[in-house]
UniProtKB/TrEMBL annotation:
GO terms for biological process: phosphoenolpyruvate-dependent sugar phosphotransferase system. Seems to have a role in regulating nitrogen assimilation. InterPro entries: PTrfase/Anion_transptr, PTS_EIIA_type-2_dom, PTS_Nitro_regul, PTS_SugarTrans_NitroReg. Keywords: Cytoplasm, Kinase, Transferase. The gene is ptsN. One of its GO terms (molecular function) is protein kinase activator activity. NCBIfam families: nitro_reg_IIA. This is Nitrogen regulatory protein. Pfam families: PTS_EIIA_2. It comes from Vibrio marinisediminis. One of its GO terms (cellular component) is cytoplasm. It comes from the Bacteria. The keyword Transferase applies. Residues 5-148 form the PTS EIIA type-2 domain. SUPFAM superfamilies: Phoshotransferase/anion transport protein (SSF55804).
Length: 148
């Protein structure tokens, strides 16, 4: 699966003013709801449930929140670049400023594990991270993520 199949410019937000993990998950839920017609509260609850299992803050200022959607047939990715880092209970106890969320239909979980793994690998590239953190617009953020 190509990243461009699940991440759109509409789902890419730079310099987001966000003050907490909860608010970041709410914002992601709202963006996905706009794209899929899903209920944003249900999406938020799904992501929150996943976070209770263990934080998706993978370290180095990055979080990859993810969840299953019950009544959708397409996966949606959201990329947020926070204006200021937020506490996220990350494994390295550092705040997070880049969030790459992935919401997938129940039926497509296995194939999206690969996408999640691919994203984690991409986000471990120091050059990509540097560019993502310097991006000045949604378009620039999107281009960096897609064109690698």
């Amino acid at each position: 699966m190509q990243l461009s199949e699940i991440l759109t410019l509409d789902c890419t937000k730079s310099a987001v003013q966000c003050t907490s993990k909860k608010r970041a998950l709410e914002m992601i839920s709202e963006i996905v709801a706009e794209q899929t017609g899903q209920n944003s509260t249900e999406l938020f609850e799904c992501m929150l449930s996943r976070e209770k299992v263990g934080s998706t803050g993978i370290g180095n200022g990055i979080a990859i929140p993810h969840a299953r959607m019950h009544s959708s047939d397409k996966a949606v990715a959201v990329l947020l670049q926070c204006e200021s880092p937020i506490e996220f209970d990350a494994i390295d106890n550092r705040p997070v400023d880049l969030l790459f969320a992935l919401l997938v239909p129940d039926a497509q979980c296995k194939e999206h594990l690969k996408t999640l793994s691919c994203m984690a690998e991409r986000l471990s590239d120091k050059q990509i991270l540097k560019q993502l953190r310097k991006a000045q617009s949604d378009q620039e953020l999107y281009d960096i993520m897609i064109n690698r």
